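Structure (tokenized):
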């Protein structure tokens, strides 16, 4: 809407009409502003699709992290090993890598006696990934769920807001380019995390787990893909995604539905098949090549960002890059 038209509308109005129209105009300008894509995202998405990274937990375990250790605390105690994981994804061809901060909110850190360390752990985690990323790779700061349920009153909305604000501030201070809120099952918690992360003014994506219901297209709380996409888009997310959950095949219809439900960039990070317990250890029975084949289909269904969640590793990223470069 051009300025001259605005002035005309305003000059023809009575006072009450003036304020009503002023409100309308402001809303219009705000919504116009809000639908434009952030420069950081526009720049990466220009060369589509964007291959992200794979799982971090298993890679840290390969570096010596043991069950019960706090992976996020390794940013302070073993920064060299965390950097090795980040670098392994950069070397495999990831154009986006995350940070080792998935569980670095004060609610979860409290379990490890590290409640007061959230800011430092996130800031350091961000700096480690930025260092490994160099000039050409974009870093999304990872924010995972609190591990406590709002619905049952285990945690309050205010506690979550405080925890996610502190985490996002640490990530921003450490220099991340964007933030990804991931593996969310509760839409209310996801929205609280989104509002907190938006305080940094960085672009924020939100990725939910859709692995429930007969068609595996709902969150654990029963929220559909369409409901989640509408709510998150409304709340100002700059990208919407699905990650973790069931095996990669189930992400083909999930991506189709998500693509139809939003105009925003779609972020997809499936698990490497379904986990199986073999000789007491969790295994994912899918090869990097098979995973990459499904990833190709997921991109055809409309994913802009593609990577791997649990069970994936740099080999999966290499296989995806190889296949995508061929086609
Ligand atoms: Zn996962």
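Design, position by position:
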């Amino acid at each position: 809407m051009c300025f001259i038209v605005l002035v005309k509308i305003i000059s023809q109005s009575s006072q009450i009409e003036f304020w009503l129209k002023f409100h309308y105009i402001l809303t219009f300008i705000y919504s116009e502003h809000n639908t434009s894509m952030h420069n950081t995202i526009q720049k990466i998405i220009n060369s589509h699709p964007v291959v992200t990274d794979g799982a971090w937990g298993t890679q840290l375990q390969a570096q010596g992290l043991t069950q019960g250790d706090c992976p996020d605390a390794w940013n302070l105690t073993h920064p060299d090993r965390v950097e090795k994981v980040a670098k392994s994804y950069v070397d495999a061809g990831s154009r986006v890598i995350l940070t080792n901060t998935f569980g670095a909110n004060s609610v979860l850190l409290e379990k490890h006696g590290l409640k007061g360390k959230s800011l430092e752990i996130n800031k350091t985690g961000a700096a480690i990934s930025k260092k490994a990323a160099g000039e050409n790779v974009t870093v999304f700061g990872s924010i995972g769920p609190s591990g406590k349920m709002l619905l049952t009153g285990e945690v309050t909305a205010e506690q979550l807001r405080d925890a996610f604000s502190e985490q996002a501030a640490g990530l921003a201070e450490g220099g991340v380019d964007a933030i990804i809120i991931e593996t969310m099952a509760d839409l209310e918690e996801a929205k609280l995390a989104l509002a907190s992360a938006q305080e940094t003014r960085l672009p924020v994506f939100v990725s939910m787990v859709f692995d429930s219901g007969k068609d595996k297209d709902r969150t654990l709380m029963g929220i559909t893909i369409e409901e989640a996409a509408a709510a998150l888009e409304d709340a100002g997310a700059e990208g919407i995604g699905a990650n973790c959950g069931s095996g990669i095949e189930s992400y083909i219809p999930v991506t189709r539905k998500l693509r139809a439900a939003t105009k925003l960039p779609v972020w997809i990070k499936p698990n490497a098949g379904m986990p199986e317990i073999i000789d007491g250890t969790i295994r994912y029975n899918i090869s990097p090549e098979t995973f990459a084949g499904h990833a190709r289909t997921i991109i055809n269904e409309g994913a802009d960002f593609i990577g791997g969640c649990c069970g994936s590793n740099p080999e999966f990223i290499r296989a995806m890059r190889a296949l995508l470069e061929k086609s």
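Reviewer-requested clarification: Residues 1-13, 18-34 have pLDDT under 50 and may be disordered. The first strand starts at residue 50 and ends at 51.
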